[in-house]
From TrEMBL:
Membrane topology per record: Multi-pass membrane protein
Family, as annotated: Belongs to the PIGG/PIGN/PIGO family. PIGN subfamily.
UniProt-listed InterPro entries: Alkaline_phosphatase_core_sf (IPR017850), GPI_EtnP_transferase_1 (IPR007070), GPI_EtnP_transferase_1_C (IPR017852), Phosphodiest/P_Trfase (IPR002591), PIGN_N (IPR037671)
Subcellular location: Endoplasmic reticulum membrane
Record's keyword terms, sorted: Endoplasmic reticulum, Glycoprotein, GPI-anchor biosynthesis, Membrane, Transferase, Transmembrane, Transmembrane helix
Annotated function: Ethanolamine phosphate transferase involved in glycosylphosphatidylinositol-anchor biosynthesis. Transfers ethanolamine phosphate to the first alpha-1,4-linked mannose of the glycosylphosphatidylinositol precursor of GPI-anchor.
Transmembrane segments: 7-27, 454-473, 494-515, 527-549, 570-590, 596-615, 624-642, 685-709, 715-741, 753-778, 826-844, 902-927, 948-969, 981-1000
Residue ranges occupied by any GPI ethanolamine phosphate transferase 1 C-terminal domain in the UniProt entry: 443-768
A GO biological-process term: GPI anchor biosynthetic process
Protein name per UniProt: GPI ethanolamine phosphate transferase 1
GO cellular component: endoplasmic reticulum membrane
Length: 1021
């Protein structure tokens, strides 16, 4: 199937379609569209709401025991307003946090298609509901709330400070907060009368807008937390500055009594901060933010009876100031703003109005919570009515079920009960009834959003299953066919009955059009449901596939490489162990230490499978293999991110790699004249690998001494990096097949493998020089501190700026204890150990003695070589073992990268990861070439041979992809969601990537000019 162009195109198209399906099934926007606005039945409580957000402020740093650093906020908490905590959700980032505050919904998971940088769809917010909006703040937050339909409206004034003030290296980071309050002060001095206007819109077309919203975004806390950490003295001084700026704001209102009496104030944060200056995950320090509200219709402080109690059952603080505190969800503040201003609640808000934060009579509270409940019920009704129009499976009544907890009859009954309770002035019971309606409606919204996820997921899993059966049937039919049948196999695979195929395609096309026209469903979602049927039809209409599936495949397995006949139990045990090995690789993506158990199982494999090592000194090689796998098993247990660096270990790794390569090459070139290595490109790479380690060592030492880095070091680093790049590969990766390693035409296996390994090791090692930049960017999120190699070649101006940031990062590394990635600790040693194990694996799989295998000469032209005969028509243990081993080695470099920030896709951590993966792919390609050639009776590996292992790899990839498809996450931090997607992509791409890597590896293993093959006569074991 995959030896034909049609088969390859079909496979690639199918995998692309299955990859894209997750964005139609898991990552769709939950926002409801088509909602209309009703006139609020309750008038506005205030004319103005001043909403102040201290971006990234830690609750425990503000609510200290005596609040000695914030006298203004302390006086508000003690005498004027209410305090408590706002609980946000992951991801705890600025954009989703502010969207929750002003639009009332949490992160739209469809934003993953925008790289998490923007919301996937337009959304409604209190900015659009208010009659007048005045906002000042950061350029990454304030502009996103500009209502699209109010651009140019004089009633909307949104201003942000310039990007140049987003300088994490600035001495005075609090200047951004001062800028915001300065602008607001200028506005109040010149145009405060605008806030006295009580104009409102009575038109539904205008959205019944009312009231004035003032938004002050203070971002110094976020910047200071990233650079100085929340426990620093600088962070405390920043909090003092926030308090001083709030005092300035209050003074502006105190000068106008009329304005002050018609204003409510809300002070909170969009997210918190960890002790090490990061956010995004779900710890309490990140998800809990401070909340202080005061002003008109806001309850004043109330004492609690038991002063010995902590702040609440949550125990967030060991004290409570003797006052009652409140816990609200972050999205609940959106309907609170709407209730204060008397505006309609934003369309997609899922917040529940916190009535405890309103000082109004009970009847008014019932009216407000009723509007809140009716708003969410409206979203539920619109979503439920849209279900038949957006899914085709509604024709299958087995899957067509309404939300049983809140049917239409139950809604009618609950609303009638609440109305009766209100009429009887049982306001507390009515409020609880409306709250029950809100909570059940939110459950219903989530239910209908994921309504057909199970059915669609079932279709995708079934497609993978049928696809795997097709791969299996194709593989077995090829091995069972006689040589004369091989040429016509591909054609019979796809066109065994042209008329039947045409009729089938016509029926499928007609079915797609009918389903799409009846249910108004997208073509892709319709195709996902028909895909298992299409694949099953292709499988069952092919006579060869049917023959394979109709009989047992047990006789296709043999023990050709051993003298011992394979029995059923032994085969079952082998398959069981291979499955266990695969599970270790699968769960190793999520729990890295499990990869250690997989490495231990690999080390014990020669004692389980006697066909793995069949050489004369078997026992010694078994012990060597076990020792190498034991060392490899250590690395998954090491921490991915640590707090120290070890340039000495980098240097030692480079010395070990260079020394081992030199000794190995010297032994294989004993017949060469003395000192010939000085002109050989392979030995030049040995020197380059050693020099790269010395450069990393020197740079790290100079940085530790705060000394300038000489220009010569930069020049040598770039020369080495460019010299190891191949112009045929995109410079974007800079880890491709090195030109220096491919200039010689007379290459043996040993010299080619060592050369390619060194050529990948040099860029892998050199990336450690600038690796701290990735850590600085992750910590301070500076927009221009890109660490990709492509950005480093744009000009001396950028290089100068990066150098400036580099030195700043190194200084901060010592002062702020910014954690160093593992690139300067043990990755060099990992590369050396992984390569050693891979070399041993390729040698053992060949079945040749050491000098025979590494002495094989690579051929540049396979046209003169005799074709593979049909004598070997069985699938032996090696065919099963090699794909499983490849996946296990392939998984080793990945988890260390998935622990890092997935937004840095082009950072050095991902580029470094490619280097060992390319080495493993090259070794895997060599194994296939050697085995196929030896089966044909040749000693020179030949090209363009079909590998059974590639088909088995695609079956394994399907197995892994189904697992990771079920583990996809649409809730959690950006890192959690991104990791689940990356795991699925990695697993799904293993099959096709192995084909591409195998082809690419063959190219790298092929000399550029033809040579006469040197036929050896190795003894096959």
């Amino acid at each position: 199937m995959f030896s034909s162009k049609l088969g390859i195109i079909f496979s690639v198209s199918l995998y692309i379609l299955l990859f894209y399906s997750i964005f139609d099934i898991y990552y769709t926007s939950p926002l409801t569209h088509g909602l209309s606005y009703d006139r609020p039945s309750v008038p506005g409580l205030v004319n103005n709401v001043v909403f102040i957000v201290a971006d990234g402020l830690r609750y425990d740093k503000l609510f200290t025991e005596k609040m000695e650093h914030t006298p203004t906020l302390r006086s508000i908490v003690m005498d004027r307003g209410s305090w408590g905590f706002s609980h946000t959700r992951v991801p705890t980032e600025s954009r989703p946090g502010h969207v929750a505050l002003f639009a009332g919904f949490y992160e739209d998971v469809a934003s993953v298609t925008k790289g998490w940088q923007a919301n996937a769809v337009e959304f409604d917010s209190v900015f659009n509901r208010s009659n007048q909006v005045f906002a000042w703040g950061g350029p990454d937050v304030v502009p996103m709330f500009q209502p699209p339909d109010r651009v140019g409206d004089a009633r909307v004034r949104i201003e942000s400070y310039p990007h140049s003030m987003l300088d994490f290296t600035a001495e005075n980071i609090t200047q951004v907060d001062d800028w915001v309050v300065d602008r607001f002060s200028e506005f109040m001095t010149a145009e405060s009368d605008l806030l006295l206007k009580t104009d409102s819109s009575g038109s539904a077309a205008d959205g019944f807008r009312r009231g004035n919203l003032v938004f002050l975004h203070l971002s110094a806390a976020d910047q200071m937390g990233h650079t100085q950490k929340p426990g620093s003295e600088e962070y405390t001084r920043m909090i003092q500055n926030i308090d001083a700026n709030i005092a300035r704001v209050l003074k502006l209102f105190e000068g106008n009594k009329q304005l002050a009496q018609e204003t409510a104030f809300i002070f909170t944060a969009d997210h918190g901060m960890t002790e090490w200056g990061s956010h995004g995950a779900g710890s309490l320090h990140e998800t809990v933010t401070p909340l202080i509200v005061w002003g008109k219709h806001i309850p004043t402080p109330s004492s609690v009876a038991d002063l010995s109690r902590a702040s609440g059952a949550d125990g967030l603080l060991p004290f409570n100031y003797g006052l009652k505190h409140y816990n609200v969800r972050q999205a609940d503040l959106c309907p609170l703003i709407a209730a204060l201003l008397g505006t309609p609640i934003p369309a997609n808000s899922v917040g529940e109005l916190p009535l405890d934060l309103l000082d109004v009579d009970s009847s008014l509270k019932v009216a407000l919570i009723r509007e809140n409940a009716q708003h969410i019920l409206k979203q539920l009704h619109v979503t439920r009515r849209a279900i038949p129009l957006i899914r085709a499976s509604c024709s299958v009544r087995l899957f067509d079920k309404v939300f049983s907890k809140l049917t239409q009859n139950q809604i009618t009954a609950m609303l009638a009960t609440a109305t009766s309770q209100t009429r009887n002035q049982d306001y507390s019971a009515a409020i609880e009834t409306y709250r029950s309606i809100i909570r059940l409606s939110l459950e219903g919204l989530n239910y209908y959003h994921k309504y057909d996820r199970f059915f669609m997921g079932f279709c995708i899993v079934a497609s993978y299953a049928v696809w795997s059966l097709m791969l299996y049937a194709d593989m077995v039919s090829r091995h069972g066919a006689r040589p004369s049948q091989q040429n016509g196999l591909t054609k019979s695979t796809w066109t065994s009955s042209p008329s039947t195929l045409l009729v089938f395609l016509a029926l499928c096309f007609t079915g797609v059009l009918i389903i799409r026209s009846v249910y108004h469903r997208s073509l892709l979602r319709t195709f996902y449901q028909l895909l298992p049927l299409i694949l099953s039809t292709i499988l069952l209409t092919n006579s060869r596939f049917r023959l394979v599936l109709s009989r047992s495949s047990g006789h296709f397995f043999s023990a050709e490489s051993t003298n011992e006949k394979r029995t059923g139990p032994r085969l079952g045990m082998l398959l069981l162990l291979l499955t266990v090995l695969m599970e270790f690789a699968l769960w190793g993506f999520i729990r890295r230490p499990l990869l250690s158990f997989g490495a231990l199982l690999l080390g014990a494999w020669p004692y389980i499978d006697v066909s793995f090592i069949v050489l004369s000194n078997r026992q010694t090689l078994q012990r060597l293999w076990l020792a190498a796998c034991l060392v490899l098993a250590v690395f998954p247990t090491l921490p991915v991110v640590g707090s120290f660096s070890s340039p000495t270990l980098v240097l030692i790794s480079s010395v070990c790699v260079s020394a081992a390569s030199y000794v190995f090459l010297q032994k294989r070139c004993e017949s060469k004249p003395p000192h010939f290595w000085s002109t050989e490109p392979h030995f030049i790479l040995v020197v380059g690998a050693l020099v790269s380690g010395v450069l990393v060592f020197l740079v790290r030492c100079l940085v530790a001494l705060s000394a300038p880095i000489p220009l010569l070091i930069h020049v040598i680093s770039w020369i080495l990096l460019v010299a190891t790049s191949n112009h045929t590969i995109c410079v974007f990766f800079l880890v491709a097949s090195p030109a220096v390693a491919m200039v010689s035409a007379d290459l043996t296996v040993s010299r080619k493998l060592v050369s390619l390994t060194l050529a990948f090791f040099i860029p892998f090692n050199l990336m450690n020089v600038l690796y701290p930049l990735a850590s600085i960017r992750l910590a301070i999120r500076r927009p221009y501190s890109s660490t990709t190699l492509s950005s480093l070649v744009r000009g001396s101006k950028i290089l100068s700026r990066l150098s400036e940031l580099f030195f700043f990062g190194c200084r901060r590394l010592k002062q702020c204890r910014i954690e160093c990635p593992p690139g300067t600790r043990y990755e060099g040693a990992f590369f050396f150990v992984l390569t050693t194990v891979a070399f041993m694996w390729s040698w053992f799989e060949s079945g040749l003695e050491f000098h025979e295998f590494f002495g094989l000469r690579l051929a540049s032209d396979a046209s003169a070589l005799p074709p593979v005969t049909g004598e070997h028509t069985c699938i032996d243990r090696a065919n099963l073992r090699q794909p499983f081993f490849y996946v296990s080695f392939r998984a080793a470099p990945d988890p260390s990268a998935t622990e890092n920030d997935l937004l840095l896709i082009l950072s050095f951590s991902q580029l470094q990861m490619v280097c060992p993966i390319m080495v493993i792919g090259t070794v895997y390609a060599l194994i296939g070439r050697v085995r196929e050639s030896l089966r044909a009776g040749l000693s020179t590996p030949r090209r363009d041979t079909h590998h059974t292992e590639t088909t088995i790899l695609m079956i394994i990839a399907n197995f892994l992809a189904v697992h990771f498809f079920a583990m996809l996450r649409d809730e959690g931090s950006w890192l959690d969601i991104g990791e689940s997607i990356s795991h699925y992509v990695i697993a799904m791409s293993i099959g096709l990537a192995s084909v591409l890597l195998s082809l690419f590896g063959r190219r790298m293993l092929t000399p550029p000019t033809p040579t006469e093959p040197r036929l050896l006569t190795p003894k096959l074991k």
